[in-house]
Amino acid sequence: MNERQVQEANEQVKQRQKVAAEGAKISTVSPPRLDMATEPCLKCEKGWTAKALVDGVCPDCRDTTFSPRDKAIAETRWSTFCPKRYLDAKIEHLEPLTRKVWETLPDDMGIMLWGTVGAGKSYAMIAFARELILKKGMEVTRTTYNELYRSVKSSYDRAATETEEGAIARYRRCEVLIIEDVGLREDEPEKSFEIFMAIINHRYENLKLTFLTSNKPIQMLTESFSQQVESRIHEMCIPVKMSGDDRRKP
């Protein structure tokens, strides 16, 4: 091969390399998506750009905890979580004291609402859940003390598909747990207390949000349980008394 042929061969190689490089460059550029409409950031309420929709980061407040994609998931969670009776439950409808406690609540603390039957404890809990699900993108599990006990107790049946440890673990692991009607009876079964404490202690040690309701103040829960419960709940929840007449009565 003479010198001219070598030069021509080198030129051909360079040309092929150039074409390959251009092809690689083109292949890494994604075409613009048509579904990237501007949406409001749930934290600062300013507009999300198309780039923010890809990155999941608000370009204004730099919040990364709740992107527009998360919003659709949260709305689905809320629609399956909320009972029809409480669809209008919102923080702004609560008593001033309850609202204030919620608005100043530390990130690692829950709330224990106590008061007479019909004072609005369940309504308030659903309002809290609305904020946690729709504005913070959290998963919330809601049950009553008796339902919790029955669900774990059912694992003792021969036909049960879940072990006691597995049933308890569901309540230990969930992101946010609401337990209503704690300590209604003065003679709660010893086993129900053991289950309750196994869940509460685990959630306390792992800084998991827990919300409770009761007809009694924390101090009187010792009538149904023990001094240990009072101490633990005080460390996990801020107690708030719900006042007013029974809202269920006409």
Task: For the structure shown, list the relevant keywords.
alpha/beta, 2 domains, globular, about 250 residues, Rossmann fold, about 45% helix, single chain, 9 helices
The Rg value, from CA coordinates, equals 28 Å
**Class of secondary structure makeup:** alpha/beta
The total of beta strands comes to: 5
Tally of helical segments: 9
Identify low-pLDDT runs: 19-37
The largest pleated sheet is described as: 5 strands, parallel
Could you say what the CATH topology of the largest domain is called? Rossmann fold
Mean pLDDT: 79
Number of domains: 2
Say which CATH homologous superfamily of the largest domain is assigned.
P-loop containing nucleotide triphosphate hydrolases
Q: Which sequence of strands runs across the widest sheet?
A: 2-3-4-1-5
Series of secondary-structure elements, N-terminal to C-terminal: HHHHEHEHHEHEHE
Q: What is the rounded distance between the termini?
A: 104 Å
The CATH first-level class of the largest domain comes to: Alpha Beta
Strand content: 5-15%
Per CATH, the architecture of the largest domain is: 3-Layer(aba) Sandwich
Principal-axis shape: globular
- The percent range for helix content is 40-55%
What features would you describe in this structure?
45% of the residues lie in helices and 10% in strands. The protein has 250 residues and is an alpha/beta fold. Strands 2-3-4-1-5 form a five-stranded parallel sheet, with helices on both faces. Helix 3 packs antiparallel against helix 5 (121-135). The radius of gyration is 28 Å and the shape is globular. Residues 19-37 have low confidence and may be disordered.
